[in-house]
Amino acid sequence: MKKLIAAIVIILTYSACKFNAGQTALPIYGNRTPVTKTIDGKTVTDTVYQTIPGFKTVNQYGDSITNKSLDGNIYVADFFFTTCPSICPIMHRNMLNVYDAFKAEKDIKIISYSIDPKHDSVAILKKYADKLGVTGNTWWLLQGKKEDIYKLSESYLVTKPQEDAKQLFIHDGYFILVDKQKRIRGTYDGTLPEQVTKLIVDIKTLKAEPDQINGK
Amino acid sequence: MKLKVISGIGLLMAILLYSCQSDDQIILARYYSIGSIIYQNKCQNCHGKDGQGLSALMPALTDSVYLIANKAILPCIVKYGLKGKLLIINKKPFEGDMPAMDMSPIEIAEVLTYITNSFGNKMGIVTAQMIDDDLTKCK
């Protein structure tokens, strides 16, 4: 009897560990709508997940960047502005770790939407990128129409930036992980190094999912 | 009984340690610990947990040569901000914009005591009196 209990304990412990280690898929966030279709006379219900809608921006090199430019990429998005005195330096100090981890990989990108496009021109964004030490096409700093960017932030499940009395922006410092199907797969507090370490691990997990390997 | 003896010895040691420190060291320790909290709240986001700065966007606070040479204007930098070019870390050119910090002389003394005695710097205490004097000379 004692032996049996011991065996059960061992098996349980083992499978508990297995369960944690074997996490091979990340959750999918956002709204989902069931869609019922008829295929070959049979009714099937498919789930359609929320995806990031189209947008029009330019990056620090002056190239036009749209949702299509990210086709075939897993990417991390955030919202910032170059003159932000509070949390942006923390976020981008942490984002540099993500950049360093993946800058050699072609299908992983980082995009930072400026929420102060009036000030953050292409030239200013380029200067910022240079000072940050960012080169090539792994990390794009994007300027778009302010209303569009604010609207877009809602699709990333981020609270819309607010302008307070002092004309300063308030935003919440999230890093959002988006897969090749443009679905949201994770949100991380970009001001916390531990969360950003988790993001790096999650990107590797995501990259290994069949949907991402085959994703266009 | 045992507990009493142990705590008795502990108390004795604490008193010994305390009285062996000079007054300056006690004030330094107090300024330093309050200063570290002010640093976390008001400076760390830009200058980093270890004073390492952020690439070429935010300067490091690890350049003792710079800090010693500019000791008298550090209070002005904190209180009124700093804009334009400086030479830092092996005299490399650096250009940025630090906002003015709304802080009292005592807070400035505490935070400067912290940074000038952390990150490899060892410059001793900065008192509120020194801050008052230096602030009258800000340009």
Descriptive report:
The complex is a heterodimer of chains A (216) and B (139). By secondary structure, chain A is an alpha+beta fold. Chain A contains six helices and eleven strands. Chain A has one domain (52-213): Glutaredoxin. The radius of gyration of chain A is 21 Å and the shape is globular. Chain B has a single domain, classed as Cytochrome c-like domain (Cytochrome Bc1 Complex, Chain D, domain 2, Orthogonal Bundle), CATH 1.10.760.10. Chain B has a two-stranded antiparallel ribbon with strand order 1-2. Chain B is mostly helical. Chain B starts with a helix and ends with a helix.
SSE order of chain A: HEEEEEHEHEHEEEEHH
Helix content of chain A: 25-40%
Q: Tell me the radius of gyration of chain A.
A: 21 Å
Output the CATH homologous superfamily of chain A: Glutaredoxin
Please name the CATH topology of chain B: Cytochrome Bc1 Complex, Chain D, domain 2
Helix and strand layout, with pairings?
The complex is a heterodimer of chains A (216) and B (139).
Chain A: H1 2-21, E1 32-39, E2 42-49, E3 56-58, E4 64-66, E5 74-80, H2 88-102, E6 108-114, H3 122-132, E7 139-144, H4 146-155, E8 162-163, E9 169-170, E10 174-178, E11 184-189, H5 193-207, H6 210-214
Parallel strand pairs in A: 5-6, 6-7
Antiparallel strand pairs in A: 1-2, 3-4, 3-7, 5-10, 8-9, 10-11
Chain B: H1 2-20, H2 23-42, H3 44-47, H4 64-69, H5 74-80, E1 82-88, E2 92-98, H6 105-115, H7 128-136
Antiparallel strand pairs in B: 1-2
Helix pairs in contact in B: 2-6, 5-6, 6-7
Short structural summary:
The complex is a heterodimer of chains A (216) and B (139). Chain A has 216 residues and is α+β, with helices and mostly antiparallel strands.
